[in-house]
Fold this sequence. Notes:
membrane, 2% strand, Atg22-like, 17 helices, mainly alpha, transmembrane, Growth Hormone, Chain: A, ATG22/LtaA_families, two-stranded antiparallel sheet, UMF1 family MFS transporter, single chain
Amino acid sequence: xxxxxAPPGPLADPAARAREHRSWYFYDWANSAFVTTTATxxxxxxxxxxxxxxxCGEAGxxxxxxHADLSVLGVPIAAGSVAAYAVTAATLLSALLLPxxxxxxxxxxxxxxxxxxxxxxxxxxxxxxxxxxGANWALGVGLLVVASxxxxxxxxxxxxxxxxxAHEDERDRVSSRGWAFGYLGGGILLAANLALVTLEPxxxxxxxxxxxxxxxxxxxxxxxxxxPFRGLRDRPVTAAVPVDGGHGPAGLARQAFSQLxxxxxxxxxxxxxxxxxVAYLLYNDGVQTVVYAASIYGNRELGLAEDVLIxxxxxxxxxxxxxxxxxxxxxxxxxxKVMVLFSLVVWTFVVSCGYFLPTGEIVPFLxxxxxxxxxxxxxxxxxxxxxxxxxxRGNEAEYFSLYQAAERGTSWFGTxxxxxxxxxxxxxxxxxxxxxxFFVAGxxxxxxxxxxxxxxxxxxxxxxxxxxxxxx
Length: 472
């Protein structure tokens, strides 16, 4: 791939456009290995065990957890809440950095280079989790923060590229296929790690197999990022207004910050876009916290072994692959907003059932995993394509930076509520029940979004389903 810029917008040739779509899908394939193996399944319980070792001298068990506190700058922190608070810290930092990343991305024609740079930095941090051992929980927290912030930064650019490579009528399909591809890639690596953690080959102990799995997720993320880096086309900046700030990296940063300030000031001119963002912040916090908390909940509250948790998440991965494709098809008939609203009803039901799961029973937990898999990919993929229609032209990355503040692994209201609820009640059941509030509130706000008015105000074309004709 050369550095020659492609014309603005999706490529005119259908075959060339499809090839670029396929290259774009591979970043979902690349980063999903970290999201599943590390962020969703293994690192939460592993970091909790490391924190418990630091607090109690040895890791607790689901039947006899460690209840001692760690001291962080003189503040007592429950060892069982360290992982949740680490995710919260990463998201708070993201809230400060991602909008600036978005402003920078909108002002550069080298988006694929930004995407790859953030991805490879995050992958290096993810692979370095191999070195988190003993009681060194602080190293684990630091690496999780770096990897999470880099993931969010790369996804700001990645999501903005969707607008450049796909027409309005293509975005539900392209976004859904990207998510489906990601679940498939993440599932394949997770299956390999399932075998590793379960069989413990070559004389490795369980902690060693977990660390090797964490390393594999970082390496996978780094290597597969080369596909979108080589296959995507850079395009010229289309609508970033020049701002006086000087030249060079420092000048570009000043210009980006000034442009971001202007964009946020003018954002009130797009009330439907802002209303969707608030709704998404709420319900996606619920989704991401359920995904994050599932392994801790199953391990610490239900007493299930790590290999059972990996099987459950593996089931979710492959079921979500089909669920994302199914929701993409249904969105062509009923519209993405209707399908996202439907998914929130199912999410509320899933969390309610999770509260009543019996301790030590594997089958009910796996049945609940099936329900999660059906709606997980669809709700996320369609939210992304739905938001892309509400983003003002030329400011895609800036708006997607706000969107990414609530995206995979960076929800903070949910993880904060979950961590506080556990610290106050000493029960993960009470903590997970709190998440219903996020789904109900998100549903209520999303139902009020006027899509037709919001899309037209943003200067985008109405997709066929909103023009009153169902696409074939």
